[in-house]
Each structure stands twice: as structure tokens, then as C-alpha cells.
TrEMBL record:
The keyword Phosphoprotein applies. One of its GO terms (molecular function) is phosphorelay response regulator activity. Residues 177-293 form the Response regulatory domain. Keywords: DNA-binding, Phosphoprotein, Transcription, Transcription regulation, Two-component regulatory system. Signal peptide: none annotated. This is Response regulator. InterPro entries: CheY-like_superfamily, Sig_transdc_resp-reg_receiver, WalR-like. GO terms for biological process: regulation of DNA-templated transcription.
Length: 294
């Protein structure tokens, strides 16, 4: 198995979100408010904007910047802070996000087609190009930029253009239920928001006894549990879940920072269907759960 050399998207997507927040605050200067205000009826919280994400293997540190500058010039855009374009580069210099403030969906698509033509001319090899439109109130939704970065990280470099429209959770609700058992409140919140947007009905517990109680009430389709949970030892919790569900109707994914072969073997022997270690890819966790439920 080869080593995945694609850049980690986390810091990159946080910088995208920060650029949007800064733009929003500039729009609100002079209002005297330091809070994110709710838009009035019929008013958009921010101006519409599109995004172009570009990735290729540059020949030097300046190749990506030269390509972005060429795209900006062809589109006759001025860079931030005065103009409509904000370019966010990943630390490795292999990819860039172009935030096209004021661009509608159709104008973003046109810009993407122009960028593809220039990349075919200028990129030193295969490239990946993705166009997207920001959702409603993106300044309130940092997870949008993470989902976008995750989607782009999975896109192969085939010198083509992908137009990504984030699906509406109401349109693709799975109707399936998921129980999270994890002592880390931030992790539970992150995964709860992520899986809720995928259409799952999500409940979460911060310790083993609460997880067992919710399991008995909910009879979930899938359980995602850490081994390091309070109240009940993680291995004992697996034993109790198996006793509650002898026909193994609920799929169980162990999601932990314990990386030993003995832990994996014990968990699978106690009825776990999959085992994933941290740090992790949210996309990989979603894909594994989808396979178990297919």
C-alpha cells in the first residue's frame, strides 16, 4: 500500500473559514455590533460567493501562485481586501482555494471552465479542480468548509472539473439511527453534527452506562464507541451490547486511540464489526459505516 501524500485539509479549511469571517466583519463595520447578527426577512447574511479548489504537484514554491495570479487576471479580479478574490494556500503549496466573493453559481461555473483551460496550459501535470457554491450563512457553518476540503481531498488528479453541490440532508435522509459513546464532548458534538447532516438520527452518550441505556431504548442501526469510556470498561461495554443484541442487528464500530493488535483482536472477538484508530479521516469513518449498513 502506497503512502498517501495528499495534504491534510484541516488547517486549510480553517483558513478558508477565517477569510469568510473577516469578509463578513468588514461588511458589518460601522454597525456598532460585535455579534453575528441575524439577517432581516429576505436578506442574505453575506453576499453570494463561489469557491474554486485547485490541486497539482508544483515544480517549485511559486508555481501555484503564478497559476492563481493568471486566473485572477483572466477573470479581471482585484485581490482582497479591496476586491472579490481571496486566495488561500495550503501549507504544502500543492493546493489553493479561490474564494470568489459576489459570484453567483453560474458565474462560478464560468470561472471554473476558464480555470480548467488555463490549468491545461500551465499546470506541470495532472490536476484536480472543484467548483462549489457557498451555502446559506457560511459564516455560521465552519463545517461546510471542512466537508468541502474532505470532498476535494478524495478527488483524483485527472485534469478534470468537478462541480460540487452539497446535498440537502432532507433530500437524502437515511432514516437510520446512530449512537455515539465517547467521553470527549467536542468529539461527540463534531460527529453528531456531521452525521446529522448525512441524514442519521443521532444520540450520544458521554459514558458507558448512559450509552447502554440509550442502546436499550434506541436499538440503533450502528454504534460508534470509544474504549476509554467512564463507568463501564470499553471491553465490558461491548460484551453488554452483544448480550442486549444477540442477533447482532446493530453494527458496532470501535473508534479509539488504542492501536495494539491485541485490542483489535479482543474487540472483534466481542462482536465489534470494525475498528478505527485516531487521528482519523471523517470521510473514512462515514464510508466504513455506510459499508456496514449497505
Amino acid at each position: 500500500m502506497g503512502i498517501d501524500t495528499r495534504p491534510e485539509p484541516t488547517r486549510w479549511h480553517e483558513r478558508m473559514y477565517q477569510a469568510v469571517l473577516e469578509r463578513y466583519w468588514k461588511q458589518g463595520e460601522g454597525s456598532g455590533s460585535e455579534e453575528l447578527r441575524e439577517p432581516a426577512s429576505g436578506e442574505a447574511a453575506t453576499e453570494p460567493f463561489g469557491l474554486l479548489l485547485v490541486r497539482f504537484n508544483p515544480t517549485d514554491d511559486e508555481t501555484m501562485r503564478r497559476v492563481v495570479t493568471r486566473i485572477r487576471d483572466e477573470l479581471e479580479l482585484e485581490p482582497e481586501p479591496a476586491g472579490a478574490l481571496s486566495a488561500i494556500y495550503d501549507p504544502a503549496g500543492r493546493q489553493a482555494a479561490l474564494l470568489l466573493f459576489g459570484f453567483t453559481r453560474s458565474r462560478t461555473h464560468y470561472a471554473a471552465l476558464m480555470a480548467k483551460r488555463m490549468l491545461l496550459e500551465l499546470a506541470p501535470g495532472p490536476f484536480a479542480l472543484l467548483a462549489a457554491e457557498a451555502g446559506a450563512q457560511p459564516e455560521r457553518d465552519p463545517l461546510f468548509f471542512e466537508r468541502l476540503a474532505d470532498r476535494f481531498a478524495a478527488q483524483p488528479e485527472q485534469s478534470g472539473l468537478t462541480v460540487w453541490n452539497e446535498p440537502d440532508p432532507a433530500d437524502e435522509s437515511t432514516g437510520q439511527s446512530l449512537l455515539l459513546v465517547d467521553g470527549d464532548e467536542d468529539m461527540r458534538r463534531f460527529l453528531r453534527q456531521r452525521f446529522s447532516r448525512k441524514g442519521y438520527r443521532v444520540l450520544d452518550a458521554g459514558d458507558g452506562p448512559e450509552g447502554l441505556r440509550l442502546f436499550r431504548e434506541m436499538k440503533p442501526d450502528v454504534v460508534v464507541t470509544d474504549l476509554n469510556v467512564a463507568g463501564i470498561d470499553g471491553y465490558h461495554l461491548l460484551t453488554l451490547l452483544q448480550e442486549e443484541d444477540p442477533e447482532a442487528r446493530s453494527k458496532i464500530v470501535v473508534f479509539t486511540d488504542i492501536r495494539t493488535e491485541d485490542a483489535v483482536r479482543r474487540c472483534l472477538g466481542l462482536g465489534a464489526d470494525d475498528y478505527l484508530t485516531r487521528p482519523f479521516s471523517p470521510v473514512e469513518l462515514e464510508e466504513r459505516i455506510e459499508k456496514l449498513l449497505a
